[in-house]
Amino acid sequence: MNTLIMREFGDYTTSGSKCFDLSKMDIADCIGCWTCWWKTPGICVHKDLEDFYRSYVNADRVIIFAQLKYGFVSSKLKTLLDRMIPLFLPYTIFERGGTWHVPRYPKYPAIEFYFNYEFEEEEDNFAKWFTQGKRAEFWQLHFSQSFCQRYESTL
User: Can you give the pTM of this predicted structure?
Assistant: First the structure.
């Protein structure tokens, strides 16, 4: 199984996985130019995530270790998620109770979220809502999330 790990905390890894340490990455903000859709389909004008895009599309499984702030993902992880738009087509469809971008590729990896945060009930509900929204947005058939402070690989 080809696994991609994105982490903001800890030194988690699994055998044979590709790891991106978000705490050490400098990720440019999306500038909303739409170049990734119209001029160079699937390719962002910023070149800082090219290796990530390839790894994501080729992964079977993505594990995200997110450091939450006030019950929400960090600005760096939010920027990374926003910058994943080139992985989808500029067209939208209306289904499953929402508007979604059409997938660019035939397959996307399963996603697992792990959070390093002690939740209060209201924040817990918001974080669940956000990650479930990302599940739908990224066309995930296999998705899990954990609000535990401890992760042990099941690989």
Answer: 0.79
Phi, psi dihedral angles at 49 (to 5 degrees) = -120, 15
Strand order in the sheet with 18-21: 18-21, 3-7, 61-66, 110-115, 143-146
State the distance between the two ends of the chain, measured CA to CA, in whole angstroms: 9
* Residue whose structure tokens are 């990302």: 134
Alpha carbon distance 91, 3 (integer Å):
29
Q: What is the pLDDT of residues 14-43, one digit of tens each?
A: 888 999 999 999 999 999 999 999 999 999
State the DSSP string of 9-73.
SS----TT-EEEEGGG---PPP----HHHHTSTT--SS-TTHHHHHHHHH-SEEEEEE--BTTB-
Q: What are the tokens at 109?
A: 């990896």
